[in-house]
Amino acid sequence: MTATPALSVVVPVFNEQDNVAPLVGEVVAALRGNPLLGADGFEIVYVDDHSRDATLATLQGLKAQVPELRVIHHVEQSGQSTAIRNGVKAARGAWIATLDGDGQNDPADIPKLLAQRAQADATVKLFAGWRVNRQDSGSKRWASKWANAIRSRMLRDDTPDTGCGIKLFERAAFLELPHFNHMHRYLPALMQRAGFATVSVPVNHRHRTAGVSKYNNLNRALVGIADLRGVAWLIRRGKVTAVEELP
């Protein structure tokens, strides 16, 4: 791995001790030697959100085996959006791939997103995963369907699945976005507000095999109402102006 890798894979985790090693292994298998990354390769930036189990110790142990692995630790629990942002800020790659730490996203889809980027216009700064075959419970799928429908109607972001954890985006573009708790659920709308284009890419989705979900339908719904109103306000108040430097 070079000092400036072609890609940084950012993975936020909280109490995922049994999912860490398998997921790191899958990321390495998907990306090590991948021609889409060239000689610069990749790094993996795990952000431990002050886990209370052996997640941090497991990550520390893996660093000796996986030279691409870096570990960031929150000294207090701060939430998924903050973990993602801190991972992106610490990342050295110009492009970022994100994965949920529960193993439901498939790292083998990262090369698919990279291939889409290679074919896309330079104005596209976000390639968002689209879980076409959800492996969650029926109640979670139902709740997600309605949440996506309401979000799409309010924000008009033309994105079928904004909650999918696997995404590929330009680091610099991401760091221009307004930061707030749960902002990771609204990346397509926020990128479009900033004047960038986004593309949804069908990806695999898997059952959780270890650990427990950190969210339920009720807490998602309660925070989602306020978040939607806030993002809609940001979109209404946003303005993108082209600039040019005179000779």
TrEMBL record:
Residues 8-174 form the Glycosyltransferase 2-like domain. It holds the Pfam family Glycos_transf_2. Coiled coil: none annotated. InterPro entries: Glyco_trans_2-like, Glycosyltransferase_2, Nucleotide-diphossugar_trans. It comes from the Bacteria. Keywords: Cell membrane, Glycosyltransferase, Lipopolysaccharide biosynthesis, Membrane, Transferase, Transmembrane, Transmembrane helix. This is Glycosyltransferase family 2 protein. It comes from Cognatiluteimonas sedimenti.
